[in-house]
């Protein structure tokens, strides 16, 4: 089992301290050990939910919930681990049990809705979000509300929820990217371009936002590369995206030029771009 050196030192130190006290009973020692073990376990639970291998985390929480079935925090851990392990259907059963229990919270219901969305059950997710009190104003809640509004093509509501969600987090890059993608689907290319650029000011490493930005610009027939930080491989991929967008819009000659640039730019052999260019040249297009 995983243990952190600092926590182990704290455990040993606490036990030594209690054991060294005059007149200390065995019960006192056991309570002390139990208290530091709770600290250790809490830390381990957090590690399992964030950096551990998802399958390993599922196994850990399955064992823990079997040993302590009344611990709702462990059941939450199992549900979240199942989602991380891309097993949302199993997680749905657990979330349903959690929100039905006296210890269930609004945060639990929001996570339940998130898991339902991952399985494509948008209607049920919307129904669960409608049960969340209006006073529960969190980033996750409004992020999901925006996605549900998007699925219903209620653009005004989606824009409102995306804006609220972006204001409720210090790391809005992902939700701004989602909002931009929503605008992209509506063919509001200029609006999408603005949001992708804003997302990249918060996280310049977010490649999906870079790729989406290229598509938004291509929708306006702007095929030159945006001024964002990118490595050589990313530049090749973005040129490829621009090329495909140009070809799709009938700008075949421009697309062929962009494919050549992508092939020359990529640090290794760029199979997809090479195959697309060969197909175009064989067809005599452009």
TrEMBL record:
<dbReference type="Pfam" id="PF13432">
    <property type="entry name" value="TPR_16"/>
</dbReference>
<feature type="signal peptide">
    <location>
        <begin position="1"/>
        <end position="27"/>
    </location>
</feature>
<protein>
    <recommendedName>
        <fullName>Flp pilus assembly protein TadD</fullName>
    </recommendedName>
</protein>
<dbReference type="InterPro" id="IPR011990">
    <property type="entry name" value="TPR-like_helical_dom_sf"/>
</dbReference>
<keyword id="KW-0732">Signal</keyword>
């Amino acid at each position: 089992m995983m243990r952190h050196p600092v926590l182990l030192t704290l455990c040993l130190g606490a036990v030594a301290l209690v054991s060294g006290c005059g007149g200390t009973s065995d019960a006192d020692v056991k309570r002390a050990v139990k208290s530091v073990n709770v600290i250790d376990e809490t830390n381990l639970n957090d590690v399992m939910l964030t950096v551990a291998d998802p399958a390993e985390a599922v196994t850990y929480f399955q064992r823990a919930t079997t040993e302590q079935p009344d611990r709702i925090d462990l059941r939450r851990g199992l549900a979240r681990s199942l989602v991380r392990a891309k097993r949302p259907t199993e997680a749905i059963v657990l979330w349903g049990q959690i929100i039905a229990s006296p210890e269930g919270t609004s945060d639990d219901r929001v996570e339940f809705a998130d898991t339902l969305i991952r399985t494509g059950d948008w209607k049920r997710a919307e129904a669960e979000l409608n049960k969340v009190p209006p006073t529960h104003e969190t980033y996750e809640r409004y992020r999901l509300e925006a996605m549900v509004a998007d699925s219903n093509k209620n653009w005004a509501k989606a824009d409102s929820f995306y804006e609220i969600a972006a204001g409720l987090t210090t790391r809005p890059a992902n939700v701004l990217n989602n909002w931009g993608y929503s605008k992209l689907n509506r063919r509001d290319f200029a609006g999408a371009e603005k949001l992708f650029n804003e997302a990249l000011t918060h996280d310049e490493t977010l490649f999906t936002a870079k790729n989406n930005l290229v598509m938004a610009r291509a929708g306006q027939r702007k095929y030159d590369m945006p001024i964002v930080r990118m490595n050589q491989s990313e530049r090749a991929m973005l040129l490829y995206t621009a090329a495909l967008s140009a070809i799709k819009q009938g700008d075949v000659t421009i697309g062929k030029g962009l494919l050549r640039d992508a092939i020359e730019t990529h640090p290794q052999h760029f199979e997809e771009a090479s195959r697309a260019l060969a197909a175009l040249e064989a067809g005599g297009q452009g």
